[in-house]
Design goal:
The structure is a single chain. The chain has a 4-stranded mixed β-sheet with strand order 2-1-4-3, with helices on one face. Helix 2 packs across helix 4. By secondary structure, it is an alpha+beta fold. A hairpin with a 6-residue loop joins strand 3 and strand 4. It has 2 domains: 51 residues; 68 residues, no CATH class. The chain contains 5 helices and 4 strands.
């Protein structure tokens, strides 16, 4: 009687690199990367000496912008009634919660904000106790790196 002793082979994993630099932001397989390549979010990156596929790099001029370049969503310092109602429903009603970074980049490429009102509201409520109305108070919640 013959027995199987071989192991299942896993698909090879590749790095997904940030738009600039060498920071690895994700791991993917060739199959998983195909969709992002077709959308124009990632491009293949090859080793210059061996020509072997090294991984994928986030692509596009608009993804290299800094936060100052991104459109700002106006909001009041106080938490409005609408925001409290949005918070009551929580992440269940968010369309962008748990989106991966490449999916958020696709949103930005399509001219949509990378996060929806629900996600912004919940972030605002989470840091509300840390932030006052004075200029620079936001840095208490999100310090500069």
């Amino acid at each position: 009687m013959a027995t199987l002793t071989g192991k299942r082979s896993r698909p090879k994993s590749y790095s997904v690199l940030a738009a600039t630099g060498s920071k690895v932001i994700d791991r993917t397989t060739l199959e998983g990367a195909r969709e992002y390549e077709q959308r124009g979010i990632w491009r293949r990156e090859y080793d210059t000496q061996t020509g072997e596929l090294r991984g994928f790099r986030v692509d596009g001029a608009d993804v290299t912008r800094v936060d100052l370049d991104l459109p700002h969503m106006q909001t009041t310092v106080a938490i409005s009634r609408t925001e409290m109602e949005v918070n009551a429903f929580g992440m269940r009603s968010s369309h962008t919660f748990r989106m991966t970074e490449p999916e958020r980049l696709q949103q930005a490429k399509n001219g949509l904000p990378p996060e929806d009102m629900v996600e912004r509201t919940i972030a605002k409520i989470r840091v509300y106790k840390l932030v006052g109305a004075a200029r620079g108070d936001i840095l208490k919640a999100w310090p500069r790196r």
